[in-house]
Amino acid sequence: MNHWKGNAEHAVIVCPFYQYPSTCSQIYSQVLDTGVALSSFEHLLFCFRSGIKETKDVSLRELFSYPVELSARVAHSERKQARHVMNALDTTVAKVCKVPVKAVVESRNFLAKTVLSPRAEEEVAFWQTEIQKIEKLTREEALESLIESRKIHGKIESIKEFIILST
Q: Of 47, 39, 35, which Cα lies nearest the Cα of 9?
């Protein structure tokens, strides 16, 4: 993730809240290790609807820098836990918007259910169609697709190149 920043001071990943893993994932430890922030459409919409904009009295920097401060407080064994990063995001948005955290959480949940539910239903339908396509594959097509999805041929080639280069 760190290379995504390039020369920028901050970087942020934004997607619908429901697309983030809900309990445990390497993405959360990467956020804490690299300082690349996570946000969601719901959080950003809350900020926009709250009329938040950068001024001499209001800094939006916190929306992008919270992982750095959070990283120092989260134990190594807890770094993959979603709750640390997501609670920090909710708390940061609430602080910037000068509202209780509960208002951010309630708004996020409401938006996820009302605005993003149709999008989620489209995605579920898409993946159900993909399952149907996979179920229609012949054994040979399924095997080749599995080998391709795991990029096994490329891994074999990389190993061969390394062996040839190092001998």
A: 35
Asked whether 70 and 104 are in contact (CB, 8 A), the reply is no
Q: Residue ranges of the alpha helices (H) in the chain?
A: 26-34, 41-49, 61-71, 82-97, 101-114, 117-135, 139-149, 152-166
What is the pTM for the complete model shown?
Answer: 0.71
pLDDT, tens digit, 9 for 90 and up, residues 140-160: 999 999 999 999 999 888 888
Query: Do both 85 and 131 map to the same domain?
Result: no
How many domains are there within the chain?
A: 2
- CATH code where residue 85 lies: 3.40.91.70
Are 105 and 162 within one domain?
A: no
Residue 162 has pLDDT above 80, yes or no: no
Residue 70 has pLDDT above 70, yes or no: yes
